[in-house]
Amino acid sequence: MYFMVRWRSLLLDLTKRELEQRYIGSVGGIAWALFRPALIALSYYFVFDLVFKVRLHAGAGTSHFGLYLLAGILPWMALNEGIITGTSSLIDAGYILKKTFLPFELFPARSILVSALPYIPIIFLFQALLMISTHRLDISPVILATWIIIQLALTYYAAILLAILAAAFRDVIQFVALVTNIWIFFSPVFYSLDSVPHSLRPFLWLNPGTPIILGYQAIILKGVIPGIKTISFTFGWLILLFCFSSLVKKRCGEQLVDWL
Amino acid sequence: MKILTVQSLSKYYRQYPSPRAKLKEALLGVKCHEEYWALRDVSFDLKKGESLGIIGDNGAGKSTLLKLVAGTLRPSTGKVVCSGRLTAILELGAGFHPDFSGRENTYFAASLMGISKKEMDEYFDEIVSFAELEDFIDRPVKTYSSGMFVRLAFSLVTSVKPDVLVVDEALSVGDQHFQKKCIDRLTGFRKLGCTILFCSHSMYHIRRLCNNAIWLHKGKPMALGATEAVVGAYENHMRSMENNSANSGHDNMNAEKKMPEIAGGENLAGLESLSLQGISNDDGHLLIEKDLTVYATAWTRDSSVEVNFGILIERGDGVWLNALGTHLDGVKPRRLDENRWGMTLCFKNVPILAGEYFVSVYLFDASGLLVYEEWLKHTKFTVISPKEKIGLVELPHEWL
């Protein structure tokens, strides 16, 4: 984390440039980055709340399935995109890493920021609208901001780990692409954890996405701090990924750039 | 004061027969790779103002050494300690994106080099004017010609005076006019006490620019020391290589001797004529007089451009007899008029013996580093010597 502070200005430059690069030459520019999450949010709301009118039981935090879905799927998409682009971040940045002497961690960090940034304002907007419509007033935006930072940290270490592994074995990219395709079905995004058979629930907790998503649902829909189990699993994953990524980083050392 | 210390620097790459072998090694810890040593145990240190030339065959590890010093490669063993600002002119334009304007790219590339936006605001105008891109700086880089691209990149990396400069034969950037500016800038850094690490195939440039040289062979240092001794040893090695493998060695030898070529564009100066006096006018080009005189003339774009001439005499099989230069001998060429220069070189009592010889002429800039034009093997002459004279030349001698 010290690293982030030391290199913050370059990291922000890199992130800004990467975002601009995607939309350069278009009239809309960076605004396009916001359209996608906003449009997805509206579509889900339209289909599940206005057309299907799916209703949930009381424990979920809202009776509207569309809202429940959004509270999970917006952060999930940021997480998912961060993992996918983070995995190939080092290979993609090979041309810069081979010609400069920048710390390689900048590039996975850039990838997760670029993936997450467009979703963050939409998530806050969504929460604000929800608070207005339910006449709720609490400190949940602060908790939400904290939770987002925790998610970014977790994604960062996962991206470092996967990016180094992908540099060593290109198979990792294929593997991650495959896993992220089905990942959402094993996270409590489309359903609540209560509706999963008791015997299968422990398996869902093995998914690092599960505690993260549950945290968002608690904060956004109920306005409360996530439960103790959610927090401990999240930090458990954070520590595990931190240790693993540090270990792999140490073992690869000087060879890493040669693999790119 | 030592400014750059390189300590038992090595770089090896692990080569795996297949990705599966790599996985096996990662999971089981069984050694499945072969080591390829690109550089092995190189040590030296440089003081302020010193310059080290790196020479060697292709694949000898020259670029690896430069990249390790520049920090773009991580060493396998050993270390590089540089106390001061290091600038590497290895691959120009790292991080440039074609869709962004020259201005945006310059600022971004500067941030990759560790120059803050605030510092950059100071240098920016100078960078643009040196690159002569005032009218283009806000256009996307993809609309630039390749010359404009490298001009901007070169101007950027050399905008801040470095303490150590790492150059990989980057003396040919853009057209003649800009090359001249580049060389002036680099020699200017040198005069200001900048330490230079320079890699080139041109022994001529190594001799002109470096006080010390290191000769690398298959990654290992063969010789390190004063330029003349190291270059001499390397040239010996080249000659024996040429003898061992007549074909490949010969091509190599030619490549080594070749002077850097000028990219197109507006030329500042060029050769005009080369003629020999003392040889017969028929097809035989026989040397018929005792003295051989070489005349050459050149033109310049305007009267401010100064030139130097170089004359090379070589035998038909590529053995250099002698290479001479006005700048090497401290002679000034004759100014014929505003824009024309001339030189006359006389070899008295030419001592060379039977064979076919070629004369090449080079036109240099005032510093003798930039080659404006070269006419290689331009004029031929033949020497027929009396039977009793054996060898390449007749050395001045006396029987006592």
Distance between the termini of chain A: 25 Å
- Which pair of chains forms the biggest interface, and how many residues does each contribute? A-B, 25 and 25 residues
Order of helices and strands of chain A: HHHHHHHHHHHHHH
Ranges of chain B where pLDDT stays below 50 over 5 or more residues in a row are: 247-264
What is the class of the largest domain in chain B in the CATH system? Alpha Beta
Name given to the CATH homologous superfamily of the largest domain in chain B: P-loop containing nucleotide triphosphate hydrolases
Number of helices of chain B: 10
Record field, number of beta strands of chain B: 17
The outline of chain A comes out as globular
Notes on the structure:
The complex is a heterodimer of chains A (260) and B (400). Chain A has 14 helices and no strands. Chain A is mainly α and 260 residues long. In chain A, α12 (209-222) packs across α13 (228-252). Chain A starts with a helix and ends with a helix. The mean pLDDT of chain A is 87. Chain B has 400 residues and is an alpha+beta fold. Chain B folds into two domains: 2-226, Rossmann fold (3-Layer(aba) Sandwich); 269-383, abc- transporter (atp binding component) like domain (Coagulation Factor XIII, Chain A, domain 1), CATH 2.70.50.60. In chain B, 28% of the residues lie in helices and 34% in strands. Chain B has ten helices and 17 strands. In chain B, α4 (117-131) packs across α5. Chain B starts with a strand and ends in a 17-residue tail after the last strand. At the A-B interface, α2 and α14 of A face α1 and α3 of B.
Outline:
Chain A is mostly helical and 260 residues long.
Any descriptors?
heterodimer, A: 260 residues, mainly alpha, 14 helices, globular, B: 400 residues, alpha+beta, Rossmann fold, Coagulation Factor XIII, Chain A, domain 1, 10 helices, 17 strands
